[in-house]
From TrEMBL:
Transmembrane segments: none annotated. InterPro entries: Integrase_cat-core, RNaseH-like_sf, RNaseH_sf, Transpos_IS3, Transposase_IS3/IS150/IS904. SUPFAM superfamilies: Ribonuclease H-like (SSF53098). GO terms for biological process: DNA integration. This is Integrase catalytic domain-containing protein. Residues 28-193 form the Integrase catalytic domain. GO terms for molecular function: nucleic acid binding.
Length: 193
């Protein structure tokens, strides 16, 4: 007997330059001193019964306020673009906004890049293997999972959607105090500006 091994590999259907990661501009940028100067976005996985659903969020790095989010059953570019569209609609930032993301393919996709170009956004990405480059969003996900999702089970995506909406709109942005904001809520911190 002789073992036969076939080659196992994935072919990239898109050209590599279309999926090229961008440099990390946050390393050289000063901290934001007002709203809509720097945003950060990422996606997390949430267990729903025996399957996974996905949550994309956009945070304003000045106030840590969640300004866009979307929950979906599929992890694709539509998910991240939906959260970004919500953020653009709610804030309407001036050209030159810096958006920082991880190196996920959903942020490198052609449609996502076109959306960012339409809004004249400068896009920045994490360095390879450096998830701490996007620490603010990772911290939000940890807080959300610890305060809302831990030891709670949701049966339907509709039920989960309702609870996440309430958490973000009625608690995180409006009532939850942040030590990094001088023990103010994101909404209060922006109002003082």
């Amino acid at each position: 007997m002789k073992a036969r091994v076939s080659r196992v590999y994935r072919r990239l259907l898109k050209r590599r330059e279309e999926l090229k990661a961008l440099p990390n501009h946050r390393l050289v940028e000063a901290k934001p001193v007002g709203i809509d100067q720097q945003w950060s976005s990422d996606v997390t996985y949430i267990r729903l019964g025996r399957r996974w659903v996905y949550l994309a969020v956009v945070l304003d790095l000045y106030s840590r306020r969640v300004i866009g989010w979307q929950l979906a059953e599929r992890l694709d570019g539509d998910l991240s673009r939906g959260a970004l569209r919500q953020a653009f609609t709610s804030r309407q930032p001036a050209p030159g906004l810096l958006l920082h993301t991880d190196r996920g393919v959903e942020y490198r996709a052609r449609k996502t890049q076109a959306l960012l170009q339409r809004h004249q956004v400068r896009h920045s990405m994490n360095r390879p293997g450096q998830c701490t480059d996007n620490a603010e969003v990772e911290s939000f996900f940890k807080t959300l999972k610890g305060e809302l999702l831990h030891a709670t089970s949701f049966v339907t995506i509709r039920q989960l959607l309702k609870h996440i909406r309430n958490y973000i709109d009625r608690f995180y942005n409006t009532q939850r105090l942040h030590s990094g904001l001088g023990y103010q809520t994101p909404r209060e911190f922006e109002a003082v500006m």
